[in-house]
Amino acid sequence: MKKSKSINKLKKEYWTVLSRYVRESSAIDGMVQCYTCGQVDLFTNMDLGHYWGRNYGATYFDVKNNLRIQCKHCNRFMEGNKPSFANRLLVELGADGLEKLEIKAKMKYHFDRFALEEGAKEYKRKLKKLRQ
Ligand SMILES: [Zn+2]
Questions:
Q1: Is residue 107 domain-resident?
Q2: Three-state secondary-structure class, residue 4
Q3: Among 7, 15, 35, 62, which has the highest number of CB atoms less than 10 A from its own CB?
Q4: Is 124 part of any domain?
Q5: 87: CA distance to ligand 1 center in Å?
Q6: With contact defined as beta carbons under 8 Å apart, do 49 and 72 qualify?
């Protein structure tokens, strides 16, 4: 029997395709803007950053509320540039939305193998469609 992939491997596969899709679909002539500092660069040079970080399960793949395109500097060297991230999300989601996101982030959460596989498939389909 084929050994099934670990949850971490499935998370990584889903994340890779989701991050690629969000950045590629947002690009204009290949360029995107950092959410937290405004820098413009090729989408392949940018990250998809988490507001509530990777330790929070329920918001890990929440594209709508928790994930935004960031430059590597903000995402990796400024730990997500949280003050700027919070200010912009506050404008987008409102105080209520930001509070809901916090509650969601702090919920107890277990990644589900099936949901991770389906998520990855969905974003592979979206990416394929985007490139047609
Ligand atoms: Zn930045």
A1: yes
A2: coil
A3: 35
A4: no
A5: 14
A6: no
86 pLDDT band (50/70/90 cuts)? very high
Q: What number of helices (H) and strands (E) belong to the chain? A: 4, 4
Domain contains 132? no
Alpha-carbon torsion 94, 80, 6, 106, what sign? Answer: negative
Output the pTM of the full model.
Answer: 0.95
pLDDT tens figures, 24-75: 999 999 999 999 999 999 999 999 999 999 999 999 999 999 999 999 999 9
Give the Å distance between the CA of 24 and the centre of ligand 1.
17
Give the type of residue at 77: F
Ligand 1 centroid to 85 CA: how many Å? 10
How many domains, in total, are found in the chain? 1
d(CA 107, CA 50): 16
What average pLDDT does the segment 8-29 reach?
98
In this structure, is residue 120 part of a structural domain?
no
